[in-house]
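[Automated response] Your request has been received and processed.

Submitted sequence:
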Amino acid sequence: AVKVHAEKATNFRRQTLQTRFFETGDNYYLGMEFTREYEKWKNETAGELVISLMQKKKLTEEKRSEIDKFKEVLKHNIDRLWYEACLEVIRRGDVYNPGARHRVPRLYLINSYVAEHLNKLSIGESFRVTDKLEEKYEILAKQWKTVIVRNVEGFVTKFPASTEVFREGDLTRSPDGNTESKVAIATFPVS
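Generated structure:
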């Protein structure tokens, strides 16, 4: 799907898009334009991914509604991948601030479900322990055999560096600190 989009890009009305990336304290903001062609491609791609589900002979209204919700989830995650690619371009290029080029953080917009050792994550990254998924933590400091972390309520504790964890995304959280904010990633149509 990405290759098809890239091949069609030479025919797009606009060849470049504006992107804004700035920070305020510990929050980062990314503003980006999505073209009509991108929206069309995203909708077609999500439609192609669910078409086999829609072709079932006996499809109840409830199942049709669930498939439509799943299609929206796919489109939302395609947007996340697009944002993540944009962030990587900014992070690796000289477009943010050439003097601070190596200080642009690696931001994750999608949670990982691949277990890894806690010592592989960087300071500031958040995670969940594989056998205790209800609690989210952030790395404060790393020592030789232990990692100092805090939970969303601010309680500090130590974990063995070999603890198996899932890396969490960096998107804004709702007031409970555990649920992703509904406006962490928001898209608006172009005029």
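Summary generated for your ticket: The chain is about 30% helix and 25% strand. The longest strand covers residues 132-142.
If you did not submit this request, please reply to this message.
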